[in-house]
Amino acid sequence: MPEEKAKVINKSGTLKMTDEVAASKETRDISGRRMNRRDRRGRGREERAPKEFEEVTINIDRVSRTVKGGRRMRFKALVAVGNHKNKVGIGVAKGADVTSAVQKATAVAKKNLVEFAMDGETICHEVETKSTGAHVLMKPAAPGTGVIAGGVVRSIIGLTGVKNLISKSLGSTNKVNIAYAVIEGLRQQVPRSDWVSADKATKKAPAKKAPAKKEDK
After folding, report:
1. Apex CA 181: angle with CA 177 and CA 185, to 5°?
2. What is the pLDDT of residues 100-146, one digit of tens each?
3. Phi and psi dihedrals of 92, rounded to 5?
4. Which of 32, 43, 53, 65 has a C-alpha 20 to 30 A away from that of 125?
């Protein structure tokens, strides 16, 4: 007589399904269609494409408004969005809770993206911008310098392809105004090829005619 295979029993005392039996089982979905093992394993996992833009929440403030019934508390979020190349934007929005405020600010930032010029891994030239009370100075730096900036400036520059930069905030410490000043400084970048040098200026300027000499009578 052929020898009977030993039955595998779990800790709970129930019979365990062998690999041969499990391989022969068919799993079907609600509509009755057969599901492969690969489909069962990947069920519920959507293939998500990599995000083009990365979002960073720079600051969240709690704001209040006095109404007839008392104070109405809300949240204000400052979010920066960038693609780690030459596109970056910021957005400010309010919401009843932190999540809604961040989502609204992210949508605003994506609508107001700025594309700026770069010189390798740094900015093209020195720029000094103001936004209300904020005053930001940014200078290009040599390779290997890194991003010498703090707070809001570092957060925004970190979302771009700029790897070497020297920055200084000279005015107000309001984060929203500093963020707008940084974006304006990046917007004002002019590529090196469009600079007006001394040679180009002399070529474009018309030659001055010498004054006619007066004849002696």
Report:
1. 170
2. 999 999 999 999 999 999 988 999 999 999 999 999 999 999 999 99
3. -125, 130
4. 53
Pick from 201, 153, 148: nearest CA to 180: 153
Where helices occur in 63-135 by DSSP H, the ranges are 98-111
Query: Residues 123, 138: contact at Cβ < 8 Å?
Result: yes
- pLDDT tens for residues 94-105? 999 999 999 999
Distance between CA atoms of residues 40 and 18, nearest Å: 19
Q: Mind listing the pLDDT tens digit for each residue in 7-52? A: 556 666 666 666 666 666 666 666 666 666 554 444 444 445 467 8
Q: 56 φ, ψ to 5°?
A: -135, 125
CB 96 within 8 A of CB 74: yes
Provide the domain count of the chain.
Answer: 2
> Is 114 in a helix, a strand, or coil?
strand
pLDDT at residue 2, rounded to an integer? 54
Global pTM reads: 0.68
The three-state secondary structure class of 115 is: strand
Here the CATH number for the domain that contains residue 85 is 3.30.160.20
Q: How far apart are the first and last CA of the chain?
A: 146
73 belongs to a structural domain: yes
